[in-house]
Amino acid sequence: MADKKKNGILAKVQRFTDHREFMIFYIIVLGVIAMAYAIPGFMSHQNMSAVLLALADQSIIAIGMTLLLVSGGFDMSVGSTMALAGATTAIWLTLGLPVPVAILLGLAVGALIGAINGYIIAEVGINPFITTLGMMSLARGMLMVVSDGKNISGLPDSFTVIGQGSVFGIQYPIIISIVLVAGGDFLLRRSRFFRQNYYMGANEKAAVLSGINVKKMKVFNYALTGLLAALAGIIITARLGSASTSAGKGLELRVISAVIIGGASLKGGVGTVFGSFLGALLMAIIVSSINLLGVQLNWIDFVLGATLLLAVMADTLSKRRAS
Amino acid sequence: MSDRSDKSDRSDSHVLEVQEIVKTFPGVRALDNVSFELRPGEVHALVGENGAGKSTLMHILGGVYPADSGRILMDGQEVRFADPRSAALHGISVVFQELSLSENLSIAENIFANRQPIMFGGFVDWDELYSQAGGTLNLFKWDIEPETPVGELSTAEQQVVEILKAVAREPRVLILDEPTSSLTAVEIEMLFTNIRRLREQGLSIIYISHHLSEVFQIADRVTVLRDGKLVETCHVSDVTEEDLIKKMVGRELADMYGIRAFLAGKERFRLESRDISFAVRAGEIVGIAGLAGAGRTELGRAIFGCEPLTGRVFLDGKPIFIRSPEDAIANKIAYMTEDRKDDGLFLDMTIRENTAAPSLQEFGRMGWMDEKAVTKFSEEFCEKFNIVTPSAWQTVGLLSGGNQQKVLLSMWIGIRPLLLIADEPTRGVDVGAKSEIYHLLRKLASEGVAIILISSDLQEILGMSDRILVMRSGRLAGEFAGAEATEEEVIACATGVGAGV
What we know:
The structure holds two protein chains of two kinds.
Chain A: H1 2-18, H2 20-38, H3 45-70, H4 78-94, H5 99-124, H6 128-147, H7 157-164, E1 166-167, E2 170-171, H8 172-190, H9 192-202, H10 204-209, H11 214-240, H12 251-261, H13 273-293, H14 299-322
Antiparallel strand pairs in A: 1-2
Helix pairs in contact in A: 2-13, 3-8, 3-9, 3-11, 3-12, 3-13, 4-5, 4-6, 4-11, 5-6, 5-11, 7-11, 8-9, 12-13, 12-14, 13-14
Chain B: H1 2-5, E1 16-25, E2 28-38, E3 43-47, H2 54-61, E4 69-74, E5 77-79, H3 84-89, E6 92-95, H4 107-111, H5 126-139, H6 155-167, E7 173-177, H7 185-200, E8 204-208, H8 212-218, E9 221-226, E10 229-235, H9 241-249, E11 267-272, E12 278-281, E13 285-290, H10 296-303, E14 312-315, E15 318-320, H11 325-330, E16 333-336, H12 340-344, H13 351-356, E17 364-365, E18 368-369, H14 371-384, H15 401-413, E19 419-423, H16 431-446, E20 450-454, H17 458-464, E21 467-472, E22 475-481, H18 487-495
Parallel strand pairs in B: 3-8, 3-9, 6-7, 7-8, 13-20, 13-21, 16-19, 19-20
Antiparallel strand pairs in B: 1-2, 1-4, 4-5, 9-10, 11-12, 11-14, 14-15, 17-18, 21-22
């Protein structure tokens, strides 16, 4: 009996250390320690908040992307959605709408785009990649039309404070993203409603037979992802003080990379928000290190791509060895 | 083929001999000194419970992995298979249980996959391909266009294409792994006719099956494996089914199906529709028999809300409306699907997550999952159902077929159903686990659950049912009292040869 108990504790420790989050966390800690020695300014408050600030929009979108990958979905349109929501909010602000109303409308644009994605995927039955690839172009195109191809600036201070203000020296975007990541992680881990996504991703047909309303869940997931992308777009617009037509270009691939480095799989059924956040953090630290080390910036994409491939290969190989 | 046949004239010659094969996997000795020999033109059955070593032996003979020690001889010459290709070149063709066909390609292209006849320049010679495929189809006297896409065929026909694909390589030895797992009685009979045709042409066949009745119908000799060891090879005429079970299990299975103990309870479930109307009482097991395509599975899925149902459904006398599995589960109707891997289980998830899947609502406190309750719930099932696993945290895909099926059953018992629809509850499950599942179903019935048992296995239907409904072309074709029905009556009714009462 005592033996069994011991095994139980060991098994629990093993279950914990087996998690991908643990591995990335370990790599991040090692990397940060190494960088702290190598680069004097690395641990400075200034650099740390620059890293986290750059990370804010990505990690907010990564929450939705994690939800989608876990449930067997995928979204290529988040970058365009983000830009469109930021721009429409900016336009409404320049038209004189009150800040809260403009923000709500901007969020609604994102949620609507996501809901349309979800509807096409769940009800019409088009593959998520194709659907959201189409939406990616469509939303970007709509942005070009409404903004007439120009950046929109001249936004009120009561709006830009959302992106530029801070408490105790921590900028609002960092606070918002960390609160959302923590909340999202907890929900996906513990809430009964969100747990359904793991079942959908693991075996969609079996999930239907288990009484999970898969279609409804899909529409909800894409709508929520659209909403989060819109929020990220609004925050970045506030931070920069203007809405750019090229905002979020290529962001979808960076976010998907982060989520996959964080332990999710395109096959669905696995992944956590915290893992995705760590994946995004790892990528941000790498970018920052390249900057500070004075390496030519052209190397950034190369190194990020290599990180993704290494993470996925290490995972696949360790799983193969285990079985 | 002609240059090979002259060697096998000697009556004592063996096409294939396996000598003292040992194969060890981490933690398991899968094969332990197994020897047996295959005579020219014989059908040799290989039986044993899951984990007995049948599939390991088959994989070694098919060149999928090498043996640790021991020899394989063909016509007295030792051979070594580096990979499946070299096994095929030596004349061994394996038909695995899982279909390996490309649904978008034609029958001909599937049969000659990667071996299409080509003409000058490497282009596929379509005329030659279709004529060769026609010849192969003629082996089984099958009258169908070789151009037909495989996706348009029924599962049973696809199974036949799979076998023809192996036969077209003109092997000396054909290994069939559970070829009847998705076939109905009539289709099995057709398959056996074809197997006999192949045997007459001198082909030696290793036939792996869970269904002992098939062994007696088709095999000349039978080899029994248990826990990786050879138990015995004997002529089927020298043994009875009970003997074989005893040898396979290593003990006597006192009573495969348990004892009918149905005490007529109150009506629990009633379906009234144009094509089929019936009622099931609390504690009653109603078996639904019929050929593939008779609409048995569709009936089960319609009651469960997966497919539209025209008709009225009553539970405990009250009308209920089911439009989705959600509605069905809310009304305490459970459906154990016929294909656990396809739409039953979450194979990459743990036992505990699987058992909780249809009853997530039960494990919540204000919307949060109560993980401890889930673990406790699933550990209770592991113990009660004798699920062989290191812990409830085991990934379901790593369990044996019988244990997977028990997990599927516990998922559905977990919702504390009033009505359980069990569709092929013992498909691909070994004899020991089968008997356990039968006893579990009986126990459920004795607790008042109404059970609809859908099965292609007539023995199962006859052994388990208190009442048997036979379906034909989507309609109710006959009804029999379980204790009195015979196999012949049920088949006659299912095929429409005789009339049911």
